[in-house]
């Protein structure tokens, strides 16, 4: 008879205990060395995934598949009986681990993966315990799994609706070492038949040394409660209703393994009365299906005008873009995949991984509290004199920075290729996107020449940076940035900044105005929907001249990442920048507290949108207060400052172009 405390626990609470909290008390797990591995095993729950397909298309599909899988599981959690706090804790403790190494896992069979899974658990020195689900079952993503997923996505794109991926398969292997009660898996000597269903497993044998027969071959139920078993099935089959799961569990004699095999072999899933709408929009190979191009008017040479059938962004949803033509068409960016030769990209990555040991986290003040950036970074310049300038004259966020280093040999070596590519993309952008094929107002007509770089390190899926626009103080108006990504693939999110609506209407037209305002607000909310650009290893993203003034961007935390064979869980990002000579700190205004003012662009108010201003930024430095300094900034059409009084521009030093002295020139 269960105790009173046990009967009062909800399904969510029991699942937390079975799959997470009890593991921290296990002597073997508790004695593991402190670090991410122990935290992953004792503080989280979620699948172990092995990737065995490395076809070119898999690089695009795998992140989408994992995201759809995670979101389905997150959705299923809310169907579990339990308090809001318990469900929230389940969401917070969910984490998956993806093993991805082409030289080890490409096209290997199920028996090999089972052995690899077994060896991984052996390396952890796990004690003989009742294993949680994640240490008994590993998941496989192979060509067949991604092909089924791609079919669903492409079909949705063709029909113009969101992808319904709940019926997509996932392969699951069982390996029970060193479970205290299950001894049916001995991968070292067992021959596993080829998998003809997306879950393949054997029924657990009785731990008793004397075999016991059971009617219909159904093993007796184990000691887990029905609620815990049901929660385990929900985590494996999140799209199947609980009523159906319970019926199959009862029909299987209370055996989770037998119920899971039945569900898997029959591919049972919920049949909704109407098409289900997942939480993310469909992802297409190309967004051409959303664009209708009118033919040119006879007798004119005007270019066709693209007309959108529907807005591509929606409030609360993220539009994922992969194809370079879609990125260029719908964001202020262009992307170049496989930018550097593979060997050169690897050499640069290795060099900067070593450099990242010297990176630091930027500290700043927010609402009178000192906070720390959720990733580490460092500034790179060309010469020792520029190092001195950047630590004693240039300010960032209201303070001087000490983590400044001289450019590395590999960074300098690739800077020529970055400079050429960025300038080529800028010229294309002007011809194809800007009115009249002319540069934007305040955009510099000069060649873009990188002379400074911020290098960021994101160590693990949780490290990130929130939505922001880059500081324009030394870049000037309409700044262009070349961003080179190395290591783990991460999402680069962008969203448009839409100006607030001006007050309009009078009392007589209040009802009509209210309706118009509501429709306008909904349209503005859709326009500010997020767009995700996936940045794989060795990709160059060019942020064009409209980026900083009209958009904000972020690197968002990831629930799952595919480890890179060189960098592991780390992503290195080099943002090459061109600091204008005319905006050297010896020329820029100082505020009343004696600090260098920063340059910002007004974005929200319609009447001032697009105007630049010098402001005191000392309030963002820990322990300091702002003096409230404000001054409108004036620039000519090429973005050069129009100073109110004579500046010392002729005496200000000039930063050296990274390309000077590089082997590429």
UniProtKB/TrEMBL annotation:
Pro residues: compositionally biased ranges: 206-220
GO molecular function annotation: dioxygenase activity; ubiquitin binding; zinc ion binding
Annotated region (Disordered), positions in chain: 180-226, 503-529
Compositional bias per record (Polar residues), positions renumbered to this chain: 510-522
Coiled-coil regions listed: none
Biological process per Gene Ontology, one example term: DNA alkylation repair
Protein name: CUE domain protein
């Amino acid at each position: 008879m269960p105790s009173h405390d046990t009967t009062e626990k909800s399904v969510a609470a029991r699942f937390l205990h079975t799959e997470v909290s009890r593991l921290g008390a296990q002597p073997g797990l508790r004695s593991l060395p402190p670090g991410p591995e122990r935290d992953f095993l004792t503080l989280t729950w979620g699948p172990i995934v092995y990737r065995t397909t490395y076809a070119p298309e898999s690089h695009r599909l795998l992140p989408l598949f994992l995201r759809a899988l995670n979101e389905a599981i997150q959705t299923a959690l809310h169907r579990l009986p339990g308090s809001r706090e318990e469900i929230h804790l389940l969401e917070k403790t969910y984490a998956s681990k993806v093993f991805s190494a082409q030289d080890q896992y490409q096209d290997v069979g199920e028996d090999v993966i089972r052995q690899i899974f077994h060896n991984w658990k052996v390396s952890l020195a796990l004690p003989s315990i009742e294993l949680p689900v994640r240490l008994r079952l590993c998941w496989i993503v192979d060509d067949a799994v991604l092909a089924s997923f791609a079919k669903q996505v492409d079909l949705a794109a063709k029909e113009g609706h969101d992808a319904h991926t709940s019926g997509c398969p996932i392969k699951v292997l069982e390996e029970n070492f060193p479970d205290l009660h299950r001894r049916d898996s001995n991968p070292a000597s067992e021959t596993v038949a080829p998998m003809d269903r997306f879950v393949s497993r054997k029924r657990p044998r009785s731990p008793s040394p004397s075999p016991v027969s059971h009617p219909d071959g159904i093993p007796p139920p184990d000691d887990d409660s029905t609620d815990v078993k049901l929660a385990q099935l929900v985590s494996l089959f999140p799209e199947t209703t609980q009523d159906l799961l319970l019926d199959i569990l009862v029909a299987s004699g209370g055996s989770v393994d037998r119920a899971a095999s039945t569900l898997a072999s029959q591919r049972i899933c919920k049949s909704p009365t109407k098409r289900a709408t997942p939480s993310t929009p469909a992802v297409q190979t190309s967004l051409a299906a959303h664009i209708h191009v009118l033919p040119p008017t006879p007798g004119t040479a005007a270019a066709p005008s693209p007309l959108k059938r529907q807005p591509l962004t929606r409030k609360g949803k993220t539009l994922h873009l992969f194809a370079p033509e879609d990125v260029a068409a719908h964001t202020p960016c262009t992307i170049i995949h496989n930018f550097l030769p593979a060997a050169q990209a690897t050499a640069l990555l290795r060099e900067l991984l070593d450099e990242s040991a010297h990176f630091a986290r930027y500290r700043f003040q927010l609402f009178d509290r000192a906070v720390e950036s959720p990733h580490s970074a460092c500034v790179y310049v060309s010469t020792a004199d520029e190092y001195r300038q950047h630590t004693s004259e240039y300010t960032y966020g209201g303070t001087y920075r000490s983590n400044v280093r001289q450019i590395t040999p590999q960074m300098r070596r690739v800077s020529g290729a970055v400079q050429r590519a960025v300038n080529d993309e800028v010229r294309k952008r002007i011809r194809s996107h800007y009115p009249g094929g002319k540069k934007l107002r305040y955009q510099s007509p000069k060649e873009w020449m990188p002379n400074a770089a911020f290098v960021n390190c994101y160590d693990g899926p949780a490290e990130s940076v929130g939505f922001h626009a880059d500081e324009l103080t030394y870049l000037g108006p309409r700044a262009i940035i070349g961003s080179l990504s190395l290591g783990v693939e991460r999402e680069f999110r962008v969203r448009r900044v839409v100006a607030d609506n001006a007050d309009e209407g009078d009392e007589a037209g209040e009802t009509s105005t209210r309706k118009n305002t509501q429709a306008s607000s909904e349209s503005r909310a859709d326009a500010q929907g997020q767009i995700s650009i996936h940045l794989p290893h060795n990709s160059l993203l060019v942020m064009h001249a409209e980026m900083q003034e009209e958009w904000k961007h972020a690197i968002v935390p990831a629930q799952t990442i595919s480890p890179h064979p060189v960098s592991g869980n780390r992503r290195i990002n080099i943002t090459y920048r061109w600091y204008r000579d005319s905006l050297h700190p010896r020329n820029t205004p100082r505020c009343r507290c004696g600090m260098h003012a920063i340059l910002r662009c007004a974005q929200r108010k319609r009447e001032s949108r697009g105007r630049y201003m010098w402001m005191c930024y000392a309030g963002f430095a820990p322990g300091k207060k702002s003096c409230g300094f404000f001054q409108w900034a004036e620039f000519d059409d090429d973005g050069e400052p129009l100073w109110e009084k004579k500046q010392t521009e002729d005496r200000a030093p000039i930063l050296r172009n990274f390309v000077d002295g590089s082997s590429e020139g």
